[in-house]
Structure formats: structure tokens, C-alpha cells
Amino acid sequence: MIPKPGALVAVFAVTVALIAATPVAASAAPPQNCRLLPVDVDPVLHSDAARAEFGVDGTGIKVGVISNSFDANATYSTAAQNVQQGLLPGPGNPCGYETPVAVLSDLHNVTPTPDDEGRAMLQQVHGVAPGAALYFATAGADLGDLTGAITLMRNAGVDVIIDDVIPLTEPFYQESLEAQAIADAVASGITYVTAAGNNTLLARNPGTTEVTPVGSWETTAYRPAPCDPGLVVPAVAGYTTYDCLDFDPGLAAPTITSFVTLPAANAAVEVNGRYYVSLPVAMQWAEPFGESKAKFEMLISLDGAAPLVVPPDGATDPLRAGSFAVDVTDKRDPTDLIPDEVTMDISIVRYLDGTSATDITPPLGFVFGTDGPQWIVSSDIMQSQGPDTVGRSIAGHNGAPAAITTAASGAFDDDRLDYFSSLGPVTYYVTPEGATPAGPLPQPQPVGKPDLLSVDGARQNVMVGAPTATPGVFLFYGTSAAAPSAGAVAALALQLNPQLSPAEIRSLLVATAAPQPSPYPLLPAAVSVGAGLIDARAMLDAVEAALPVPDPDNPAPRPVLAASGGGDAASAGIAALALVALGAVLVTVRGRRRRAS
């Protein structure tokens, strides 16, 4: 995770974990198949039917993926092997798709070795739109150069961009520089698809079997109250006094909120004889990044110990001047392989110096950066109330107004939203990052997110994930896995009608999606599943219906581009395996951005 500027982002570390489930029986692939692995998402998204009925495979459309790396890790396969296996295009591809992936930038010789998630994403794109020309660009060793990768894609003339970077250190309350780069790309005619993220944390409702999202908390205005008498608040030079946030919009005034956590059995990571469990937390408030006047601190106490100050006063990050970050961990006995429950008490302190510029009450809040693991047992605050919102976890460019934000559905199981998939909405209170002048918007600007559901859980042989019966083949879970097939469906539509604008692509995807209910009784579909699950056949049917009717006296060719390649699986689609989530190891990289793995 990469910190961003101003006294706005606090990063705290507390867990790493697994997601688990079980595979089920599935239909067999056709006996003659030019691919090593079938296109698992086809029967769910109806993309096989779309290709067969409308004669499209993405030919003539350029699709780019931005992630960590493409061909840096040969643990399970290489890019060259994937071509020979029919899982990527290139010379020798047995399905006839021989234009290789254009690698605009990649990572090599970095530590730790990246896992080539970008290549796993491109395998998913190639399955749905095998005729599309594919491009890859890395967002850098710390996944911080999204704007640079977008520029490379634009210069290459890409039609669709897909990214899976989760940016908890981009602004929550203003449009980030990355979101503005996306808007510029969309204005130039590029359809942009981004992963929603995997940051939803669930807690059990007392006395029931229900769970509810509690992985974030925010309010529309800071509510000052006297700090808890037992809270040790560090003195800060230049500030005469302080108060604490009241977490209750009602008559009570609690200034400490608690989470009881239960890390997974294998969450502890051994480092020099100590075991660490870590969970990033990002705290922000609604002032312009890099120009903050107020001073807030988050104090976190673990199991009643002295509170940790997040962030430490004066710490800086080299990415952008004025930003800060901290990596604090819960150190456990090296023999404690199964961490016990951890009680985490959070307070937010406002330091005061008697000036109107500093002593303000802006919107503020915090989000846990789980990237998949679910481990909250209980929380003091289980639902939104009044001006306070609980559970929103889409942040930064993942909520960019110009992007198509894709949530993940466990559609191989029951079509519901995956429990880790990040939730909306997004609300802007401040002018875009870098704007002059910077300051509050005339009124809050809500942005409805996510836009759509796509499916994850398909097979790939690039990186470790949920195991299958085949050695070296894993199931791919997370919104990183859902976004590529969404972008590939957009490529099929663009082949059928190359004149479609990004706004029309979004509208068609939304209008033809299969509605799904919200899995959470207190949250509407609009902030959890969006318009519903993508239906490629229904979308292309709508695209064809809108094509001009040819004049019989002056016939003109349809704008559809001719399909390329060969292979029965590529042109007509194949029957996919129906699978339930079996889990994927999701590791928090402390001090770096994380992918939506």
C-alpha cells in the first residue's frame, strides 16, 4: 500500500489470511479442445453464446491490463508456455490466435518476486475475447504508478483498459489524480474497467447467524467530545489541547469503538522468531491532500495495551510530499501458531491550537484494508445510523466516476456477491486532488458504486490460489478475477459495433445485467451488487438491435469486424466447470499498494 499526501492517511497493520470453500461437480469440456483449460466463465456470463450467435471474438479490439507483473515468475508456468497451452495469444497458439501480448512495461529482478497476476488476468480476457489484441503494463514495484501505465496504454491505442490496483492511500473524499487520469482516458474514447476491491469485513450479528459489513466507519462531520478518562493521549508540540471523536450520533458520547477479531489459523507470519499478524487501516478526512490544516491522530490499543499512535507525528513518505505512513504489528509469541482473539480499541483525537483553520469538523473516517481475509467477530457499531456510514470500502480510483467498477460474484455457486467484495457508495466533499484552488465542493457529490457484478473463481495456471485436482492449476478469486471478463465482454460489444462510446458500453452493460439482490438486509443493491451480473449475450443482442437497418437499395456492410483465429473452443465457446470457491492465499504487503487479488 502506498501512502498519499497531507495529514490524511494512517496505515496500521493487524492480519493476513486465507479464503476457503469447496469445488463441486461440473460439466465436461468438449473432447476436442485447443485450450489446456476451459473458459470457466462462459456459461455464467453467456459469453460463449454471444461469440457463437454474433460471430465475434474481440478481433480488431485492443485490451490492456494494468497490474503487478506479466512474466516475472515461472513457478507454475511462463508466458511462452501459456501460448502453447492456448491460454494466451502468440506464435504457436493452437487455437490460431498468434498475435503475442504486447508488454509495454514489466517487473523483473525485484524482491519479493511478483506473482504475475497480470498474466492471470490476461488469461481470463483471452478466454472470453480470444481475438482481441492484448497489452500489459505494470503499475510499478509498489503498484503506485497507475497514471504512468494508463499513459502507456493510451499511447498504444488501447480500446479497453482493466486494472486491479487497490488504493487505500488515494483520497477517499476527493477525486484522486489516478481517477482524473481515468477520466481523461475515457474522454479519449477508452472504456475503463476497475476492480472494486476486496476490503469488506464482516461481523456476526449477536444472537443470529447473519453477518453484516463493519470494515469501515465514516461520518459527515467530526463530533467533538471529551476523551475517555483512561485514554493516554500523546502531547504534540504546538497544540494546546485536544478532544476525541464521538462515535454515536445520539445522546451517548463514546470516544472508543472496539472490534474483536479472530485471525485465521495460518495468519501469523514468522519474522526473526516473532509472529506477526497485520491489517492495514487507512484514516482520512475531507481536506485537500497535501494541504491539510487540521491535525487528527488515530490511537489503537490491542488487548488493552498502551495505544499505538497512527500515524507517528512527522513521519513522511517519499511518494508525495507531506504524506505519512506507519507499519505497526501485533507481535506474538513464536509458539502461538493460532493467534487468539484480539480486541482492538480505536479512538480518533483532534488536536487544537485555537485557530479557525485547524479547529475544524470535517467529514472523516477509516477503512480496513483486508484484501480478502474475513476475521471480525464483533463490533461496537454494526450498522449505519444518522450521518454515520458503516461498511463502505470502495476508495480512490476504484470508485472513479468515469470507470466501470466491477464487484465479484461467486456465480459458480449461487450468484451472490462474494463476501469480500468491496461496497459503495463513494462521496466527494473536496475539489479534485491537485485542483487550484483546492477546497470544499459546494455540496457533497455522491457516486454510485459498484456498477456491475462479474464472476470470479475461474481456473488459471499462473499464480497460487485455491487448489484444484490438477497440480499447478488454481482457482482465481477476487475482484481482480472478475474485472478481466467484464472488460472482455466490452471488447466483444466493440467488435460488433466499433462506434460505441465508453458511456454507451457502460449503459449497455448496466441495462442488460441480470439483477441480483443485496446479500445484506441493511444495504441496498445499488451499493453492493450494482446493476447485477453481466450477461454478454443480452448485451450483444441490445448492441445489434441498435445497429442501423441496412437500406435494401443501397446496402452497406455492418460495422462488425471479422473474427479471427481458429479452434472450436475459441469460436463457439465451451462448456465450463461449475465450481464453488475453494480459497486463495491473499497476503498483505506492508508499506505497499495491494492488488485486488
Main sheet specs:
7 strands, parallel
Give the neighbour order of strands across the main sheet: 3-4-2-5-7-24-27
**Can you tell me the overall shape?**
globular
CATH architecture label of one domain: 3-Layer(aba) Sandwich
List the helices and strands and how they pair.
Layout: E1 17-18, H1 42-45, H2 47-54, E2 62-67, H3 79-84, E3 102-103, H4 117-128, E4 133-138, H5 146-155, E5 160-163, E6 165-166, H6 177-187, E7 191-195, E8 202-204, E9 211-213, E10 216-219, E11 224-225, E12 241-245, E13 257-261, E14 269-271, E15 274-277, E16 281-285, E17 295-302, E18 308-310, E19 330-332, E20 342-352, E21 364-368, E22 376-379, E23 388-390, E24 404-409, E25 426-430, E26 440-447, E27 452-455, E28 458-460, E29 466-467, E30 474-476, H7 479-496, H8 502-512, H9 536-545, H10 568-572, E31 585-586, E32 594-595
Parallel strand pairs: 2-4, 2-5, 3-4, 5-7, 7-24, 24-27
Antiparallel strand pairs: 1-31, 6-32, 8-9, 10-21, 10-23, 11-12, 12-20, 13-20, 13-22, 14-15, 15-19, 16-21, 17-18, 17-20, 25-26, 28-30, 29-30
Helix pairs in contact: 2-9, 4-7, 5-6, 7-9, 8-9
